[in-house]
Amino acid sequence: MQLIQGKLIADQIKEEIADEVKKLTEQGKKRPHLAAILVGHDGGSETYVAHKVKACEQVGFESTLIRFEENISENELLEKVRELNADKDVDGFIVQLPLPSHISENKVIETIDPSKDVDGFHPINLGRMVIGLPSYVSATPAGILELIRRYNIETAGKHCVVVGRSNIVGKPMSILLGQKTNPGNCTVTMCHSRTKDLASITLQADILIAALGSPEFVTQNMVKEGAVVIDVGTSRVASTETKSGFRLKGDVKFDEVSPKCSYITPVPGGVGPMTIVSLLKNTLLAAKGEVY
Which of 14, 52, 116, 249 is labelled catalytic? Predict the structure, then answer.
């Protein structure tokens, strides 16, 4: 069993991005600028955004964090999005999800200029991705592809099973691995909460991607010998063993499943760090004008 070390790969990519930023500034070009909008005080969102701001510093990006209280109106938030669309200094921006229930996430996402949508959530970016045109690919699927690429994991002709059908991970992941690319050329099955006899399908997987947000859902009897297992889950579970009072758990029961795997991602330290560097890579592409 080989551990897929996302943190190690993410650190390598950050160095590569920092080198590119240095070259841009030496040519007299401006530093890439990523902005983030954070609404309310959700603990997970606060943590993610803090990591994103820190990552921008590490690679030499400009970053702007725009905070709003939870009671901001939908119109006020949409106005700020339009303002960022028009701001020539901002190369890309994200609106951290989830948003309060009185704000339509879809409306906010659709208002973002696709050429600045470095999260890759806009329907235009998703549509371009589906038909294989240049696009901003959402950060988690892009990070997973990068891990597969850098570990030289063979995907052509393999059966990939994706458990989870979210717009952020499951759906784009299933499309990307089915395309005529490398990594890609998989036969893909997408499963979800309504799938009958799930284990009979996951046992066929050469590559199993667990992205359903249910801690330790995937057990030993669901994974075949020699499978590659990518665990996207990050659930906070109460724990008496940590200072914070919680521990991050993946969707895979790691201790039980890992002995059967050829490759597996840990949680934390697997897919998570790659999500942030993928966002940085998209922002660099936006700054260089290489997608739109």
Answer: 52
Q: At what angle do helices 271-288 and 43-59 cross, to 10 degrees?
A: 50
CA 33 – CA 280 distance, rounded (Å): 10
**Which H or E element spans position 237?**
strand 235-238
253 classed as catalytic: no
Q: Find the catalytic residue in 119, 206, 231, 251.
A: 119
Which tens digits make up the pLDDT trace of 112-155? 999 999 999 999 999 999 999 999 999 999 999 999 999 999 99
Instruction: Name the one residue in this structure whose structure tokens are 């240095």.
Output: 22
Model pLDDT, residue 155:
98
Which pLDDT does position 48 carry in this prediction?
Answer: 87
Task: Determine contact, residues 162/173, Cβ cutoff 8 Å.
Answer: yes
34 pLDDT above the threshold of 90: yes
Among 206, 203, 135, smallest CA distance to 175 is for 135
Nearest one of 180, 146, 185 to 275, comparing CA atoms = 146
Each residue's pLDDT tens digit, 199-211: 999 999 999 999 9
Cite the DSSP H helix spans in the chain.
6-26, 43-59, 74-86, 105-111, 123-130, 139-150, 170-178, 198-202, 254-257, 271-288
Q: Which of 80, 96, 206, 249 is catalytic?
A: 96
b/e per residue 161-187 (b: at least 16 CB within 10 A): bbbbbbebbbbbbbbbbbbeeebbbbe
Structural domains of the chain, ranges and CATH numbers in brackets: 28-130 (3.40.50.10860), 139-272 (3.40.50.720)
Percent of the chain having pLDDT more than 70?
A: 100
Which pair of tokens denotes residue 8? 């190690």
Q: How many CA atoms lie within 13 A of 6 on its CB side?
A: 23
Give yes or no: 206 in active site. Answer: no
